[in-house]
Amino acid sequence: MFNFTRKKAGAKARRSTTGNFFIFCIVALLGLFSAFPLYFAVVTAFKPLDELLYFPPRLVVLRPTWTNFTDLYQLASNMWVPLSRYLFNTVFIAVAGTGLHVLFAAMAAYPLAKHKFPGRNIIFSIILMALMFVPQVTFIPQFIMMAELGMVDSYAALLLPWIGSSLGLFLMKQFIEQLPDAILEAARIDGSSEYRTFFSIVWPNSVPALMTVVIFQFVNLWNYAPKELVYSESNKVFRMALEQIVAGDPIARMGAGAAASVILMIPPIIVFVLLQRKVVETMTFAGIK
Amino acid sequence: MKGSKIRTLGKYKESYLLMAPYMIFFLMFTILPVVLSIVLGFTYYNMIEPPRFIGWYNYIRLFLDDDIFIIALKNTLFFALVTGPISYILSFFVAWMINDLSRTMRSIATSVFYIPTVVGAAVFPMWRLIFSPDEYGYLNGLLMGMGFINEPVAWLLDKEYVLVILILVQLWMSLGISFLAFVAGLQTVDRSMYEAGVMDGIKNRFQELWYITLPSMIPQLIFGAVMQIVVSFSVADVSIQLAGFPSTEYAGETMVTHIMDYGSIRYEMGYASAMAVVLFFLMVFTNRVVTKLLNKVGI
């Protein structure tokens, strides 16, 4: 017994100490490069004016202050439309776009993964190809369609295209595919309809995948700011508003700009850190065969 | 025969109904736009008059009569060929290097490397500050302080530097979803395969990587490649935010910014659509090639 465990622990090929040390150094360097701009944003956001303009620039803050955040708030309250309106727009679009996408994509993923209806292979290969047709590359025809439908400059223009995005469906389908058929059969024998099977069995068993799709979709929508689709101030999103404030005078508003960056960074980071385990669990099944 | 077909469809009524809501949005806002750009690519269309069929004219104009498109195409391919592979390989190696860490350390490392992807868009002002053209810019301040340069350099306005800086920033924020797929995929490689590998004479971690780990991760590798292709061909935000739109002498122009120029400023929708079609084909073609290559891994 003892021998067996020992053998298992040493199952992998030998790791040399030099190699380990070398790898550690590379990871640490890359990690620093990765984290530096974020650190830099936070430090800058808390610098008082004299430290912001200090030459040569310093990488630490000596007397941290909230001034930049209050400045940002001041600048924002001078705008035509209150900042809360922009924030509401972003939250509304992010929540509605995420919620509807997750629900619809999961509903569609279940039959694609578990039913053998005619046409499923074709549909799935179209979806695979559509993984590449993200809004960043289809925005011109999308804009034309929105214009034809009279939806330009509305929530619909920002929201609707994301509901049918293909990454979420793909991840859900891959995840549901590996759920054991036995639990589905049990429900069917009890006479449950496919809709009920979906909501009572598939949905609760797919929580990691659902959470993963929530993260990707929420982050995408939170960062989304397509200037061609909305132009009235009252329809613009939070990120656009903050960018407008900062764009006024990049140097004088350097501190406020950093404060805006920090505020925009917080929600995606929180969402990702909280749900990270689920993501890794889901991505296990994300391969394309 | 026909009757039985209808009966099969009827049998799967519930499947189709479950798919219907998603499919409506998917067809309307993902598939239809692609089809629409293929059609409009053969027309002149300014959104006021109805589209007018002009055959291959847009494509001829793109390649023979639009110098800036050629710059945009070159930049996009340069971006894709540099950031695509580097970021793909980097995301695999980072995932591979952190794979031996303990669970908690691995989670922390995953966050550190993935967070730039989720917050990248918010941090552009910081990069502008780092590369700012006056001595308040951190890079200028640093280099002047150390005596490397005497005068501030306008990093983002200078044709010599802008593309390199854009690539650097793009790399910073593009480990992306492929990285997560690799982190997850590495965890699933069957442990007994490693054991068998040791028996078969695998000596070090690199042999193990090439003969065991990579071949058993091909599905994740292909998925990661698709995600990376999307990111590296659709580069635009980083260029607009750092180099400006339009950038100095179009040094930072990419296909997507060129599409924006014609689509959302000049309203030459037919021409912009033709460009989008070229971009789609480039992406689909690259995807084909990469998938073929990845299926050869470990042989």
Characteristic key phrases:
heterodimer; A: 289 residues; mainly alpha; MetI-like fold; 2 domains; 14 helices; 0% strand; globular; B: 299 residues; two-stranded antiparallel sheet; 15 helices; 72% helix
Describe this structure in words.
The complex is a heterodimer of chains A (289) and B (299). Chain A is mainly alpha-helical. Chain A has 2 domains: 15-65, no CATH class; 75-283, MetI-like (MetI-like fold). In chain A, 72% of the residues lie in helices and 0% in strands. Chain A has 14 helices and no strands. Chain A has helices at residues 2-9, 17-45, 49-52, 67-77, 83-114, 120-130, 135-148, 155-163, 166-177, 181-189, 194-205, 207-223, 238-247, 254-283. Chain B has 299 residues and is mainly α. In chain B, strands 1-2 form a two-stranded antiparallel sheet. In chain B, a hairpin with a 7-residue loop joins strand 1 (43-44) and strand 2. In chain B, helix 4 (67-98) packs parallel to helix 9 (176-188) and helix 14 runs antiparallel to helix 15. Chain B is flat and about 70 Å long. The mean pLDDT of chain B is 85. Classes of the chains: A mainly alpha (289), B mainly alpha (299). Chains A and B meet through helix 2, helix 5, helix 6, helix 7 and helix 8 of A and helix 2, helix 4, helix 5, helix 6 and helix 7 of B.
